[in-house]
Amino acid sequence: MKLETTFMRFIGNVIDKLQRHPKRVVFLKAKSLVFCRRRRQFQALHLGAPIVLGDQTKVKEVAESLNISLDGIRVINPLKVKMPKISPSGSFASP
After folding, report:
1. Most buried pick, 3, 12, 22, 41, via CB within 10 A?
2. Domain of residue 26, CATH code
3. What is the 3-state secondary structure (H, E, C) of 46-88?
């Protein structure tokens, strides 16, 4: 029982800190029901700004089929994002 109480106190502290200082969190499995629910909970608790990686059309279809709003959720398609070039030295090259 003591371990369970300690864990719940830890989770409560994490939630309190995130509500005071919200973070951006990336969710990778856009098509997963479990991850869709987690994103919704994350947003409902005001823990930060959820970001979903995936095709915007497919993410929207999945959200609609699960009756989940995408309001306030940023959807990024990594296949369409232009990545900066990295020089041989490992630094980002100027565009």
Report:
1. 22
2. 3.40.50.10950
3. CCEEEEEECCHHHHHHHHHHCCCCCCCCEEECCCCCCCCCECC
* CA gap 56, 83 in Å, rounded: 18
Higher per-residue pLDDT: 93 or 7: 7
Q: Which strands sit side by side in the sheet containing 23-27, from one edge to the other? A: 23-27, 48-53, 74-76
Which CA distances in Å does 61 have to 16, 58, 64, 66, 72? 33, 5, 5, 9, 17
- Establish if 30 belongs to a structural domain: yes
Structure confidence at residue 1 (pLDDT): 56
- pTM of whole model > 0.70? no
Total domain count for the chain? 1
Q: Is residue 90 part of a domain?
A: no
Cα gap 61→2, rounded to integer Å: 44
